[in-house]
Please model this.
Amino acid sequence: MSKFWGIIIGICLLALPAKATVLLNDAEFMAALQKEFVEQGHDEKLEMEFFGGQTVFVIEDAEQAKIMISQMKINDEQGTFSANAEIFADGKHYSSTNLTGKFYVLGEAFVPAEEIAKGEEITEDKLKLVPMRLNRIKDADITAKEKLVGMEAKRSLKPGRLINERDIGPKIIMKKGALVTSIYRSKGLQITAQAIAQEDGAKGEFIKVENTKSGKKFRARVVDAETVEVQ
Model:
C-alpha cells in the first residue's frame, strides 16, 4: 500500500511546474543605466564598458527580475560613471552591486559593407549605416552617404572601416593622353577643336589640354569622357 502511495506522490511532484531561472547580464544592466542617464539629461545613444561591480546574476526559482539604479554619478569630462544597482527577484530584494565604468556617446556613420577596390566607384549598395563612437570619428572622416556615393576609391577600402577624405576622390572619367573635343562658346558662337588631355580629370574639374594643331596649352572643364569646355 505504501508503495502505491509513493508512486502517486512521485507522479504529483513530477506534475508540479518547475520555477524558472532568470539570467541578468551586461545588456540588462546597460539598459537600466541608460534610463538613469536619460533622467540626468543624457538622451544620446550610449555604449558602456564596466570596470567594477557584478553584471551577471543567475537567479534560480524566480519568474522575473528587476534592476533599480540609484546614487548615480556621471563625470562628463572623463566619460566615467558610478552607480548602485539593486536587484529584485519576484518583487523581493535579491542582491546589490556597485557599478563603475566608462561611457561613449554613439553616432552613426556610413562605412563600406564590402571591400571596395582601388579605382572602384562607391555606390549606395556598397555602403551600410553603423553605430559609431563619436570619439572615433575624426574631422577628416566622411560619414554622410551623399558625400560618398559617386566617388572613386583612391585605395582599397575595408568593410566596416571609416572612410577618410584622403581615401576617396572624384571619379576620373578623362584619362591623360586622351584625344578630346574642346568647345568654346561666346555670344552664340561655338568653336570646336581637337585637343589632347595633359592630365586625368573628373567631371566638372579643370584640367590642362593641348590643341593638336597649334600646340597651345590651356585649361578646360571636363564635360564627359570625350569633351572639355573652354571657359
